[in-house]
Structures are given as structure tokens and as C-alpha cells.
Amino acid sequence: MKIYKDEKGFFSIIDGILAISMIIIALMVFSTVINMDISQYSKENDDFLTSQDVMEIMALKVDENTYSIFEIIQSKLEKNNNSLQSIEEVAIISGEFLNKTIPNKSYSLVENNQLNGTVIVSNDNMNLAKNISVAMKNIGKYSFTLYIW
């Protein structure tokens, strides 16, 4: 059995090429993983946060001398015993607010407790929506649900 000596350095060159190739492949895999697109999840999360934020803004008082949108809505509904006229007034108030706050979104605001699921205001058909984000807020004896899609 004869042992060959690597006098010309072929084995060293092949070993170096393999090592460099493995480094290049590892960098390509790393680059691919970093640049993966996860925008669909981010979009869904953004809509969820938007619905939560809008509900909080509607419940927010600017200072102690003002009323929140929900307090105004609650007051109008209670004062008129949840009449159809008061629901129409509330629809105008909440519709104006939602159109200014989320102009490029479809929405539906529903009261679940006192009005038994009555849609107060809506600007699109929810049955055609693919992804719906939901936020709920209780104000007094009223329970409001905002759907955004």
C-alpha cells in the first residue's frame, strides 16, 4: 500500500473551496431568513390595535370639564329611554367621529346590552369582510362593540 504525498496542494485547495462554499451558503440562508415577509400578521395586528385605540379614544375625556363620546352617547340614550330618535342622534355623533378617526376603514358600532345588538352606525357590509377586528367597551349599563375591517 502506497501513501501519496500532496506535493502540489490539491487537497488544501479543495478543502479551502469547500470551507468558503459552506460560509457562502450559511450567509445566504441567514439573509433569506432575515428578509422573510411577515406583513400579513403585521396588518392583522395593526387592525386589532386600531380598533382598541378607537374605543379608548371614544371613552377618553380631554379634561374634567368635557365629556367623552361614549358619555355623550350614553346620556342621549338614557335621557330618551333608548328611543329610535336618540339612536339616530347617537348614530350621527358616532358616525362623524369614526369617519374622521378611521377614514379608510370599514366599521360597525353595535350596542349589545340595552339595545339588544342594535347597529348604531355602520359604513359597509360586514358580511363581505375577510378579517374583522373587534373591540368592546362598557360604559354604564351600555356595552359597545366596534368592528373594523
Question: If you had to describe this structure to a student in words, what would you say it looks like?
Answer:
The protein is α+β, with helices and mostly antiparallel strands and 149 residues long. It is built from four helices and four strands. The chain has helices at 10-34, 39-58, 69-79, 84-101; strands spanning 107-111, 118-122, 133-139, 142-148. It has a four-stranded antiparallel beta sheet with strand order 2-1-4-3, covered by helices on one side. Strand 1 and strand 2 form a beta hairpin. The longest helix is centred in the first third of the chain and has 25 residues, at 10-34. The chain is rod-shaped. The model has no long low-confidence stretch (mean pLDDT 88).
Summarize the structure.
50% of the residues lie in helices and 16% in strands. The chain is α+β, with helices and mostly antiparallel strands.
Q: How many individual β-strands?
A: 4
Q: Note the run of SSEs as H and E.
A: HHHHEEEE
Please report which band the strand proportion falls in: under 5%, 5-15%, 15-25%, 25-35%, 35-45% or over 45%: 15-25%
Write down the overall mean pLDDT: 88
Q: Rough shape?
A: rod-shaped
Please give the alpha-carbon distance between the first and last residues. 78 Å
Radius of gyration, in angstroms, nearest whole number = 30 Å
- What's the tally of helices? 4
Helix and strand topology:
Elements: H1 10-34, H2 39-58, H3 69-79, H4 84-101, E1 107-111, E2 118-122, E3 133-139, E4 142-148
Antiparallel strand pairs: 1-2, 1-4, 3-4
